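Please produce the structure of this protein holding succinic acid.
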Amino acid sequence: MSKSAKIKLDLLRQACYINGEWLNDTNKGQIEVYNPFDGNLVGRVPDLPTEQVHQAVAYAEQAQKSWQALTAQQRGDYLQKWADLIDKNKEQLATIMTLEQGKAIIESRQEIDYANSFIRWFAEEGKRIYGDTIPTLNKDLRYTVLKQPIGVCAAITPWNFPAAMITRKVAPALAAGCTMLVRPASQTPFTALAMAELAHQAGIPKGVLQVVTGSAKIIGNIFSSHPSIRKLSFTGSTEVGRELMAQSATTLKKLSLELGGNAPFIVFDDADLHKATEGLIVAKFRNAGQTCVCANRIYVQRSVKAEFLKIFQEKLLALKVGNGLNEDIQIGPLVNQSALQKVKNLLKDALDKGATLHCGGDNIDDSLCFQPTLISDVNHKMAMHEEEIFGPIAAVYDFDTEQQAIAMANDSIYGLAAYFYTQDLGRSWRVAESLEYGMVGQNTGLVSNAVAPFGGIKQSGFGREGSKYGIEEYIVTKYWCINVATEH
Ligand code: SIN
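Below is the modeled complex.
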């Protein structure tokens, strides 16, 4: 038995966290959450009725005034206390995450640290929300710029990062003086609810942070159209992002949308192929290939393709797939049957259209675990060129020249993350400047952290999370013009 399987799960809450209390008697229904590895029931959460979601918004409005009135230092202290409790309960949180999401326990632990780094970063960053004074145009006038919290905020978060996608929205909101309602994905509500319990234990006042579970459609509709909600932050598909943006138009709500990606990963012939393949393991297989920044299109310069495929295949065959709770597993199952079916369909389409299979290619023993798969001779006529694979398939394309690689990499409606490997200085600048992406990793397969701006351009959305920019999403600018003339 794995070490994690023996952990007591006293943070697992089968209820919504509303106005500082746990609510599970909603008379409407329950949503069942299953472990993607073995199909066992992890628990149930309420399918919250519309009136109760509205009630939660009203509680957030009530809490807004007093939370906003605290100093940044006081809010930061609450956040630091919350982060301390998350650290203390890391093993349990990681276990809950693996149970509901499937990811390898080593990755769940990393995600808890990653999630907590946003809380600690924004606890400090809240103290650095500076305004301005502007040199005057008139001797009697003074111009001042105040930075104030935007007000009640809402977040809709995905299943692939059940903790980090929450804290990188909640922490800047709370640090800036906003209250926040969160709707976690129905597949993975328990990590969010466990973190809410720790926020409660940290003494974060009632109504400041609330977690509501239930229908994506109903809650999404309320979050995007309620006049009291001033800001909505969403991480998920471009399709849903478009819908939320349209719904938000009626109240002109401020939005942050972190949407789909289709990341290119370019390997030039001067790259260190060992380092490039190591970086690619991270960029492709993190979370079983289920991240928005996963390398979806791998472009390898033709002159090094054969060697690259050989080195990469060896690394890929060493990856262990299975029950995420086991310490030696690097890749857990896909999240559900439809994810598995999508991966299978995309692979079949590519193979039917001429791609070459090097290894992998199927799920294991009828489970949701998919073999790490390598294919080459992929081209833009295959469906996976346009679509996010969201699974452990590495799809290799060829190119000959730098211009060709840049053009191919930019040939996408998405613009979230891109990666390239080269040791040539001139090429580094040319490629980094030319890639139409919000984030570019050079000679690394991982760009995400709390101190850097995460976000996309084009149809990958807008807004930035993490870094000094992340808190600006929760702040409004007020210009104050003062006549200081003495009265006569
Ligand atoms: C995502 O997949 O949306 C987030 C990935 C990350 O934070 O690195």
